[in-house]
Amino acid sequence: MSNLSSTYLSVNDLCKHFGAFQALKNISIEINEGEFACFLGPSGCGKTTLLRCIAGLETQSSGSISQKEIEISSLPPSARDFGIVFQSYALFPNLTVFSNISYGLINNKWRKDEIKSRVEHLLDLVGLKSHAGKYPSQLSGGEQQRVALARALATSPGLLLLDEPLSALDAKVRLYLRKQIKDLHRKLGITTIMVTHDQEEAQSMADRIFVMKDGEIIQSGTPREIYEKANSPFIADFIGITNFIDASVVNQDKVFCKDIQLECNTTGIAEERSVKIAIRPESILLSQKKSNEQNCIQGTIKENEFLGSFQRLYVESPSLSEELLMIDIANTSQTNFDLNQGSMIYFIFPPDQIKVYPNS
């Protein structure tokens, strides 16, 4: 993460209505100078609308936005200090790469020698130095998006806005550009906000993630905090892979799942309350035999998927749940286990890895 200092952008009690539909509901956030923030959520959650309000491309219905302690809520986009990259690249098809990048500099009355120097520097930054004379139609999707990124950075804005910049690209290009954008952020230290529906993208790139649902921010934190301390089943399911099991609370350190009790922390949840317990596939441990450890359970492997560096087991355990359980095992750690389909295994739910969510 960059060295974060003062608050750079403040959004206070922001609401946005489209007719009777409320797209944003009382959004309040602060983003620090030099931070890389992600608005993450499913389609229709309001993340792009929030970004567009920050850019001035949409006008909020109520609330305010401040940039470096200056209220910008009523300013047009042209008067706000930002560069933006869209999913669709939005390059001028009749202009060369050089002319696309220099467009804003010309409008800002830069001298020709300054423009040439700046564009060459940006082309070098994004690895397209030999493409200055090409047209967008002569470039791949990844190259076009790098041109769009260079254009957004041309005037040295204080804020970089990225609206689903990688979603139209294939997997390998996405990985490459993900790293390139992160490297650029480290080099330039520019405050950056990215909108994405891809949780892996957000986790690998962001200093802080704001998870959105139905026009609200329902959790914010570092990628690790969001992953390990998801505050709802929705977030636990949306961020990564999770096993959910129906249960009821026995006391402050036990739940009852179908036919067995599991030890876990249920502090603050009433006895007999209906809950869902959640545990990540990689948090479940295999045991060579039935042990006296807490939460050691028997199951049968119904399917084994090879996924490169790890295997995902689908395990039947009727005493625990009607659903198959997912267990992820690193290929380097499973040499002594018979993991073939039909094999009986024992597995352990570490109590500190179990999250308990009351049913609404």
Could you please say which CATH topology of the largest domain applies here? Rossmann fold
By CATH reckoning, the class of the largest domain would read: Alpha Beta
CATH homology superfamily name of the largest domain: P-loop containing nucleotide triphosphate hydrolases
Mean pLDDT: 93
Describe the model:
The protein is α+β, with helices and mostly antiparallel strands and 360 residues long. The chain has eight helices and 20 strands. The chain has helices spanning 47-55, 97-107, 112-125, 141-153, 171-188, 199-205, 223-228, 233-238, and strands at residues 7-18, 21-32, 36-40, 62-67, 70-71, 83-85, 159-163, 191-196, 208-213, 216-221, 243-251, 254-257, 260-263, 274-279, 285-287, 296-306, 310-316, 325-330, 344-348, 355-358. Strands 6-7-8-3-9-10 form a six-stranded mixed sheet, sandwiched between helices. Strands 13-12-11-14-20 form a five-stranded antiparallel sheet. Strand 17 (310-316) and strand 18 form a beta hairpin. Helix 3 crosses helix 4 (141-153). The chain is elongated, with a radius of gyration of 25 Å.
Strand and helix layout:
Blueprint: E1 7-18, E2 21-32, E3 36-40, H1 47-55, E4 62-67, E5 70-71, E6 83-85, H2 97-107, H3 112-125, H4 141-153, E7 159-163, H5 171-188, E8 191-196, H6 199-205, E9 208-213, E10 216-221, H7 223-228, H8 233-238, E11 243-251, E12 254-257, E13 260-263, E14 274-279, E15 285-287, E16 296-306, E17 310-316, E18 325-330, E19 344-348, E20 355-358
Parallel strand pairs: 3-8, 3-9, 6-7, 7-8
Antiparallel strand pairs: 1-2, 1-4, 4-5, 9-10, 11-12, 11-14, 12-13, 14-20, 15-19, 16-17, 16-19, 17-18
